[in-house]
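A student in our group prepared the protein record below, which I am reviewing. What it holds is a sequence and that sequence's fold in token form. My question to you is simply how this chain folds and whether the tokens agree. Do not assume that whoever made the record got everything right. I have pasted the whole thing underneath without changing anything:
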Amino acid sequence: MFRAPQPTGKPGRPPLVVWADLHIIQVIKQDTRRRVRAVRRTLSYGNQSTAEALGQATQVGWGVFTPASIERLHGTFRTGIRPLTRRSRTPARDVAQVEAAMVWRGVVYTFCRVHRSLDASPAMAADRTDHVWSIRE
């Protein structure tokens, strides 16, 4: 999944090479009776210092890797982009079209929706804008 073909000039399938800038952090929650007791974060792949710098840049307000923000976004993608669901009547035939839909959905999610947990849009919470955008904007 996180690999790209590296052409060799020889016939046959080229070898797949892991992306150079890939960093995977695993977040493990230990809970009892629906209460989280501890959260352990481990580096599964990549460079620890680079992964921490990316976390500081992308995990607004936390600076710590947490699954809540990314899982919420993934749920939004699955709800709004049919080819990303497991059983869909509209299979993805064009990668560029799915990527464009994901970018559009991400922009609307970040700039045009008010989130109850923030009482603002994520862009307003991160001081990227001073108002909730309309779709036309």
